[in-house]
Amino acid sequence: MDRDPRQLILEEALNKFEIGKNQLILVGMRVGKTKLAIEIMKKYKDNFKSILWVTPNKELRDKGTPEEFKKWGAEELLKVTKFICYNSLHKEKGSYNFMVLDEIQSFSPNNSVGLFTGDLKVETILGLTGTPSKHKDKRELLEKLNFSTLVEMSINEAINTDIISDYQIKLIPLELNSKDKLIESGLKGKKFLQTEYEKYNYLTHTIEYKKRNFLPVNKFLYTSRMHLIYNAPTKLFAALSLLQSLKKEERTLIFCSNTEQAKLLGYPSYNSKTSDKDLKAFQEGKINQLSLVKTGTVGVTYKNIDNVVIIQCDSNNQGYSYQKLSRGLLKREGKKLNVYILYLKDTVDELWTRKFLEDVDTTKIIE
pLDDT tens digits for 204-216? Predict the structure, then answer.
């Protein structure tokens, strides 16, 4: 009988790990990144008397990761481990034998400053992610800190070895509305309405004109265009239509552009402006649809997911789009995850989506 590939990865990690080297565990969901790190800590517990574990959110900091320690028989290590979030890493001072950077795509030049000023001293760093960042500054940061890969398993390898479910992506291209004047434009006191098409073309032509003529481009123009795409009524109406076409008994995760869109959709939601009531109801199987924005995208496990609807894709430079897709890949025998991606044709939204799809197996895409 073939051995569990997760056990083989664990053995490889334990054999190759070296104290004093900064290393990366590049494995996707369900392969067991956290367990791999904990098993390394258990093996070298006599060397690691002070540990700093950095997580992307407070749920993992306060509950999820400490519970993993208990699950994998490392409760005694909790006494020497401090858990913090990335948003407070820049303030951290002191000396540690070992630091774990969970979801290392959140590690940045800004929050790593203590490692270069000497305020934060760490002997060995272990980074965990299934979706490494493609941002140039973050890649250069890892090079500067001499990171090397300890073990690696791609999402396709995890599918082929039966660790996670297979999936297919169905692209839903949309046209900017050129008929209905629903978009507010203009300055205070001189407001007027435009169509999505008119507003998008105005912003894009202005940006391109300035770039062609080597003029400074105000960031406001880029953010205005981004917000137009994120908040386009066309996307909201298309998402509603898609969701209504899916079977009510199917379990669906909906990734929204922002909290306002989640509110307008009207489905149960878990985001930065809600409690976790709907999340718990979804996890317990009491409801079958749940909308998310960023909260709940990383480090949360969802079971028995039939559909993932991504209303807003990004270029995946920090792995956010892959994280959304991965939320539905918990193994289900004989089941394939349906992933729906909405995008606005002939806009930068299509460019962002196509950029993300470069990281995806093209045989799984349905145009």
Answer: 999 999 999 999 9
State the Cα–Cα distance between residues 152 and 56, nearest whole angstrom.
21
Q: Tell me how far CA of residue 343 lies from CA of 109, 135, 178, 217, 246, in angstroms.
A: 31, 22, 16, 25, 19
Helix/strand/coil for 70: helix
The answer for residues whose C-beta is within 8 angstroms of residue 281's C-beta and 6 or more apart is: 268, 287
Average pLDDT score over residue span 71-95: 96
Task: Evaluate whether 262 touches 256 at the Cβ level (below 8 Å).
Answer: yes
DSSP 210: H
- Which residue from 104, 114, 138, 122 is spatially nearest to 24, judged by alpha carbons? 104
Cross-strand partners of 26:
129, 152
d(CA 126, CA 37): 8
Q: How many other C-beta atoms are found inside a 10 Å radius of the C-beta of residue 298?
A: 23
| Both tokens assigned to 361 | 């197996």
Q: CA neighbours within 13 Å on the CB side: how many for 333?
A: 0
Length of the chain in residues, anyone? Answer: 367
Whether residue 77 contacts residue 43, with contact meaning beta carbons closer than 8 Å, is answered with no
| 183-185/192-194 β-pairing | antiparallel
Please compute Rg for the chain using Cα positions.
Answer: 22
- Enumerate the β-bridge partners of residue 98: 51, 124
- Stretch 90-98: mean pLDDT, rounded? 97
Give pLDDT tens digits for 175-212.
999 999 999 998 777 889 999 999 999 999 999 999 99
Pair of tokens at residue 224: 């205005």
**b or e along 228-256 (b: 16 or more beta carbons within 10 Å of the residue's beta carbon)?**
bbbbbebbbebbeebbeebeeeebbbbbb
Q: Which of 87, 129, 131 is nearest to 108 (CA)?
A: 87
Least confident of 60-69, 109-118, 226-235: 60-69
CA 333/CA 165 separation, integer angstroms: 8
